[in-house]
Design goal:
This protein has 145 residues and is α+β, with helices and mostly antiparallel strands. Helix content is 21%, strand content 48%.
Length: 145
């Protein structure tokens, strides 16, 4: 299981997030999906190396971006801010093992820590949606070569 897939499972298990939406999508917002919605995507990754052994440490730092999106008809800016805050309360400082019970054999990822980085907000006239775009740095286990 990939780190961003594990984060989706964490969000779907959080009462604060699912009270606002269960529409959580990777990379692209599907057409006519309804609002409010949350989209996530991996923006970057840095593999951590071990200096003493000149090898892979088995951990990486990922930048994961979340877009909280809502239309004026579905609560507008207030809903977007509430969803962004629910995501922050769920993820910031999180650590632990995340398992996908639907995979066979069961796959898991260990998340060492999640750190809030930055939020930007805005309104898109073309799509008539409010958005909060928030980046998190996620330190997690990675398969060693």
């Amino acid at each position: 299981m990939l780190v961003h897939e594990a984060l989706r499972l964490v969000l779907l298990a959080d009462a604060g997030v699912i009270a606002i939406t269960t529409r959580i999508y990777p990379s692209i917002l599907p057409q006519d999906c309804g609002f409010p919605a949350l989209v996530y995507d991996r923006q970057g990754k840095e593999t951590i190396e071990r200096m003493e052994e000149r090898g892979h440490a088995g951990i990486a730092a990922f930048i994961i971006r979340f877009w909280s999106i809502s239309s004026l008809d579905e609560g507008g800016a207030d809903t977007v801010y509430a969803l962004d805050e629910a995501v922050r309360l769920c993820l910031q400082g999180y650590s632990g093992s995340v398992a996908d019970p639907d995979s066979s054999p069961e796959e898991s990822v260990f998340i060492n820590g999640i750190f809030y980085r930055e939020t930007r907000q805005g309104y898109d006239d073309r799509t008539r949606t409010y958005q909060c775009i928030t980046d998190y740095e996620v330190w997690a286990g990675e398969t060693q070569p």
